[in-house]
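Honest question from a wet-lab person: if I give you the sequences of every part of a complex, can you actually get the arrangement of the whole thing, not just the pieces? Trying it with mine:
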Amino acid sequence: DVKVTQSSRYLVKRTGEKVFLECVQDMDHENMFWYRQDPGLGLRLIYFSYDVKMKEKGDIPEGYSVSREKKERFSLILESASTNQTSMYLCASSFSDRAYAEAFFGQGTRLTVV
Amino acid sequence: EDQVTQSPEALRLQEGESSSLNCSYTVSGLRGLFWYRQDPGKGPEFLFTLYSAGEEKEKERLKATLTKKESFLHITAPKPEDSATYLCAVQANSGGSYIPTFGRGTSLIVHP
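Yes, you can. This is the full assembly:
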């Protein structure tokens, strides 16, 4: 079974802190994604990576950065956490090949910024 | 721009009452359409991938179908444990993009 593991289920951080969310996948997927999910807004893409050290901005990259030093690991960084970044954060990964296009998600990290 | 619209936003069913969820999409060349189930506080769980019009996939009480403009998720004789939010996503062929576009989901509640 595909496994995408996020480092924390719940996090509480203070405004202004630098926050790291880690994601590891065990299926040798080329693509990795970070989304945030808020009630009424659905899933919104923050950043996407299609290869090691490669990244592309998604729809809402402001206030976030990412790092992909190894194929299996994709980190999301909140440079200076703010209360409007309180949300559910979801990591996903997928193959690039057409026959295996579906993305698989981690269990999510519920981040609260106080 | 790829778009995915799911309807209804919310659906309440009695146990055993069959129904369908709709996912309408516009995409410049469909690479794949995906259905996911999401339980509260958890990440989406992959259900099905459909690649071409006319294709159907089944899993227990769920059956997904695909036309050139929409997909349906049919739920036959649902049980309370089928209560969840169901998400639809599409992935386009254009530009080598691997990014799926998600709809906002249908929240399904099945009453015993």
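Two things worth pointing out. The interface with chain B takes residues 4, 6, 30-31, 33, 40-43, 45, 48, 50, 58, 88, 90, 92, 94, 96, 98, 101-108, 110 of chain A (CB under 8 Å). The mean pLDDT of chain A is 94.
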